[in-house]
Design brief:
single chain, mainly alpha, two-stranded antiparallel ribbon, 16 helices
């Protein structure tokens, strides 16, 4: 990897951007009340966006430059005319994905693991300045946060680390028993952390992912990069079904009595979504809406569609789907995407690189 870093501009830029992004995301997820720190956060965000867009634009082909320029213009319009900052976050993600598309999957994993080791060390020192390490909850009592702003944030980060570790072990550890032992030990550690956080979503998904990992381990040819068209088709249909279900939930929440029980199970997520729909109506077609005052909207696709607009979202959804069907994946990659898609029913981390590896699975270079 060091050799590649010396000669490959895509790896160099992705490495530098992801390390800085990872440290920034981890640090600013801590509860440290300091005005100067908030000012630094804004400066780093602007620096990251400008650096990532510039490097992706200079290194990409003409057609990619065109798409990136269009989304950049859309981001500027959304920010200055509609006070909508949501495009900016995705502008950073798109730029990083353009770089990742030219980098081998193995190197992507190495960069992510290295960045998170540095981030964890940095967080361990910085967490000393956090306002609290446990959050009082009316339902569960004290929930462990490790200094993060929310126990669910810690839960999602733990889930991401678990999936990355399992995917890396699939790639580098050929001996099955050794791979099972290492991943099982990490699973026990992650499970302990998640139990203390009472993050139900991350806990259940970690258990599910572990069992899927066990199945993949004993399945022949599971670690080979193959088209796997049936799995891709099922995942596409699953994602599209989630979009329909989420819209059904927020549209008919007060009409279908059964949805009140679903709302209780999902801790008022339907209620928040229904408030958004009753206040704004259907999402705009061409430009997104600033929905900050209606947050939290923990239905991922609802939040993205309203923030982006139907047409921009549909274009992005089509491009990601097209890329997905043109790449090769291992069985565990498919299982990881399934778990991350399942999480979009309760969280909005699917496209956030610090908390999800999903889009890197789709866009990384497999050969």
């Amino acid at each position: 990897m060091i050799k590649n870093l010396k000669y490959d501009p895509f790896i160099i830029m992705f490495f530098l951007l992801y390390v800085l992004y990872s440290i920034k995301s981890g640090f600013f997820s801590l509860i440290i009340n300091n005005e100067f720190i908030f000012q630094i956060k804004n400066f780093i965000n602007v620096f990251l966006i400008i650096s990532s867009v510039t490097s992706a634009f200079l290194l990409s082909k003409t057609r990619t430059k065109f798409y990136l320029a269009i989304f950049t213009i859309l981001s500027i319009i959304g920010l200055f005319f509609f006070s909508n900052k949501s495009y900016l976050g995705f502008l950073l993600i798109i730029s990083m994905l353009i770089l990742a598309s030219k980098i081998k999957w193995e190197n992507i994993l190495k960069i992510i693991i290295f960045s998170n080791i540095i981030t964890i060390i940095f967080i361990c020192f910085s967490a000393y300045f956090s306002e609290y390490y446990f959050l009082e909850d009316d339902r569960f009592g004290e929930r462990f946060t490790a200094g993060f702003d929310n126990p669910n944030t810690l839960g999602q980060y733990s889930l991401m680390l678990f999936t990355v570790t399992a995917l890396f072990s699939e790639l580098k550890i050929k001996e099955i028993t050794t791979r099972l032992f290492i991943v099982s030990v990490i699973f026990i550690i992650i499970l302990t952390i998640l139990y203390l956080t009472y993050s139900r979503t991350s806990l259940l998904l970690s258990v599910l992912f572990y069992f899927l990992f066990l199945i993949c381990t004993i399945y022949k040819k599971s670690n080979q990069f193959l088209p796997r068209k049936k799995i891709k088709t099922l995942l596409f249909l699953f994602s599209f079904s989630i979009i329909i279900i989420q819209f059904y939930f927020i549209l008919f929440f007060k009409i279908d009595s059964f949805l009140y029980e679903v709302n209780d199970l999902l801790t008022s997520r339907l209620w928040f979504g229904n408030i958004l729909f009753n206040s704004i109506g259907f999402p705009n077609f061409f430009i997104g809406t600033n929905i900050e005052e209606y947050l939290p909207i923990d239905f991922y696709f609802i939040q993205i569609i309203y923030s982006f607009g139907l047409i921009p979202f549909s274009i992005l959804y089509f491009m990601i789907t097209k890329k997905f069907f043109n790449t090769k994946i291992t069985l565990l990659m498919g299982c990881t995407l399934f778990v991350m898609l399942l999480e979009t029913m309760t969280e909005t981390y699917f496209s956030v690189p610090f908390y999800s590896i999903a889009l890197f699975i789709i866009y990384s270079k497999k050969i």
